[in-house]
Specification:
Blueprint: E1 5-7, E2 15-16, E3 22-23, H1 27-33, E4 52-59, H2 64-70, E5 78-80, E6 86-93, H3 119-122, E7 127-133, E8 137-144, E9 150-157, H4 167-197, E10 204-211, H5 213-219, E11 240-243, H6 244-247, E12 256-259, H7 269-278, E13 286-291, E14 295-302, E15 305-312, E16 332-338, E17 343-347, E18 355-356, H8 358-370, H9 388-391, E19 394-395, E20 400-404, E21 409-412, H10 413-437, E22 444-450, H11 459-464, E23 476-480, H12 482-492, H13 496-505, E24 507-509, H14 516-524
Parallel strand pairs: 7-10, 10-12, 13-22, 15-24, 16-18, 22-23
Antiparallel strand pairs: 1-6, 2-3, 4-5, 4-6, 7-8, 8-9, 11-12, 13-14, 14-15, 16-17, 19-20, 20-21
Helix pairs in contact: 4-5, 7-12, 7-13, 10-14
Length: 528
């Protein structure tokens, strides 16, 4: 194991085990402090089993959580980083991580370019940096301020993922004293990405940033704890500029960093950016915008008014609550179809599958309905109920439907339950917003499926499982990373900041928590 990493424990060991032995904090925290990223979608609670690493040395024996999550894999050296503690020197062999599938292109309206600076005065080259900070991924754009052209783009997995996959996990981590670490993680990541895009970051003269309210609070070092408890009052709705350097972003000393305005505790600058890019704010027609993620954010309306809501879908579509789930990186099953003779699937990067990502999960659930592997309640069929060509794919012992026979990647009945919860939350959110707005399906001219994840969702599969309304199927159009495009426009269009401010000021926000209509709709939408 020549590539394993060795660590000497030098810090005081303050935690004692049952035998009185002095031990360290969990390995995931030790590794994070040493700059090594280990995914921890459940924020170290031992629920997801995704922080598995090969480790050895002076480590305590596996606890019951590890035994349950890893089983026989323990014999091969696998451990859960969030549960394993060292009492001396140790080594780790981190799992290989593939390149992320991050959408950077998206729908945007035409607008007149206007440079935010006097390029003749500053000289060339002169750049702008736009950044969309998603909970899962981060997209960055380098812009030429002399003509408005896009020089380069870059997408990465959000470095804060070591503190959990969803915003609640991140808020919890902040409440536990990790706010500065989370803020440093994203600032450092923005600076690394900027350096990859631009050899001389002092030539960056303007910066625009957007994200959900939790990401924006953390970015500015504001405690996000109030976002998770009623009455859900954010510390700031942003929409202001600060010095880029003072924020921590390496740019020209004169550069300003503008954070796009939010609307509520769960509707952030990424959604106002979506509305700007999709043109909802000045459209005569009524359109629906849906951004599917750990939170399902949506907007409905036109130039006469826009309704907004956000629903906690959970991390199932990010792969975090799924046994074989993972993000959209190389090695993940990204599409699943029912072929003439058998299942057909594609793996991102055309390699051996190591898991399944959100788009594949939605496809797989739709296919399972189609071929009768499960019914509308989510119940898996028995082997004798299946078509013979699929019968060997059902593992009756583990209650798992196998997609890839070679690697045994698939979905379990527990996975399907997580998918049900997530898709019901999105569907009920759309239903409740339409109810409050008094708008029917026939009045909606288009459905914008926004976000990097939305760019890869198959609309037929989404409608088949009830994630999106079947009545709107023909109107669904993926728009990619329209939030990133909105951040770009905030730099290149002199009118954008005024429009964004007006979008926020004219919002009709619907709080779904405790809404009886939403609760009823949620229950109804549990069925596939």
């Amino acid at each position: 194991m020549s590539d394993r990493m060795n660590f000497s424990v030098t810090e005081p060991m303050k935690v004692s085990d049952a035998d009185g032995k002095k031990v360290t904090k969990p390995l995931n925290e030790l590794l994070r402090e040493r700059g090594l990223s280990v995914d921890a979608p459940c924020n170290g609670l031992g629920r997801c089993g995704k922080c598995r690493i090969k480790a050895g040395g002076e480590l305590l024996p596996p606890n019951e959580v590890e035994k349950k999550a890893l089983g026989e894999a323990l014999d091969n050296g696998w451990r859960l980083a969030c549960q394993t503690r060292a009492y001396g020197d140790f080594w780790v062999l981190p799992p290989q991580k593939g390149n992320a599938r991050v959408a950077t292109e998206g729908l945007t309206q035409k607008y007149a370019f206007s440079s935010p600076i006097d390029v003749k005065k500053t000289g060339l080259p002169a750049y702008g940096l736009a950044v969309d900070i998603g909970t899962t991924t981060v997209a960055a754009y380098l812009l030429d301020l002399s003509d408005g052209s896009r020089i380069a783009t870059l997408g990465e997995i959000n470095a804060q993922r070591t503190f959990g996959a969803d915003v609640i996990s991140r808020i919890t981590a902040c409440n536990e004293g990790h706010l500065d670490e989370l803020r440093k993680a994203i600032i450092d990541q923005i600076n690394r990405m900027a350096a990859k895009l631009c050899a001389d970051t002092t030539r960056i003269f303007d910066v625009a940033l957007c994200g959900n309210p939790t990401m924006q609070h953390i970015l500015h070092g504001m405690a996000p704890e109030k976002l998770a408890v009623a009455p859900f009052i954010p510390t700031s709705l942003f929409g202001f500029e600060v010095s880029a350097n003072e924020l921590g972003i390496k740019a020209n000393p004169t550069a300003k960093a503008y954070t796009l305005p939010a609307i509520s505790a769960y509707i952030g600058g990424d959604i106002t950016a979506d509305v700007l890019s999709c043109g909802m704010y000045n459209d005569e027609n009524i359109t629906l915008m849906v951004d599917v993620g750990t939170n399902g954010e949506m907007a409905l309306g036109n130039k006469d008014g826009i309704y907004y809501c956000s629903t906690a879908a959970g991390p199932a579509f990010e792969g975090a609550a799924i046994e074989d789930g993972m993000g959209g990186i190389e090695g993940a099953i990204g599409t699943v179809k029912a072929g003439k003779d058998d299942l057909e699937f594609e793996v991102i990067g055309n390699q051996k599958s190591i898991g399944i990502c959100g788009s594949g999960i939605i496809d797989a659930a739709a296919v399972m309905l189609q071929i009768g592997v499960m019914d509308e309640t989510g119940r898996l069929a028995d082997e004798e109920e299946l078509d013979v060509k699929y019968s060997d794919r059902l593992d009756g012992k583990t209650r798992k439907f196998i997609i890839d026979r070679e690697t045994r990647i698939g979905l379990t009945d527990k996975d399907l339950r997580q998918v049900q919860l997530a898709k019901a939350a999105i569907a009920a959110g759309i239903d409740t917003m339409m109810h409050n707005a008094g708008i029917g399906f026939d009045q909606i001219s288009a459905v914008w499926l926004a976000g990097g994840f939305g760019a890869h969702i198959d609309r037929d599969s989404a409608c088949a499982i009830g994630l999106l309304p079947k009545a709107l199927r023909e109107k669904i159009q993926p728009v990619g990373n329209s939030a990133g495009e909105g951040a770009v426009r905030a730099i290149l269009d002199k009118d954008a900041k005024k429009i964004l401010s007006e979008i926020g000021n004219g919002a009709n926000y619907i709080e779904l928590s405790g809404d009886p209509y939403f609760m009823d709709s949620y229950v109804e939408n549990m069925l596939f």
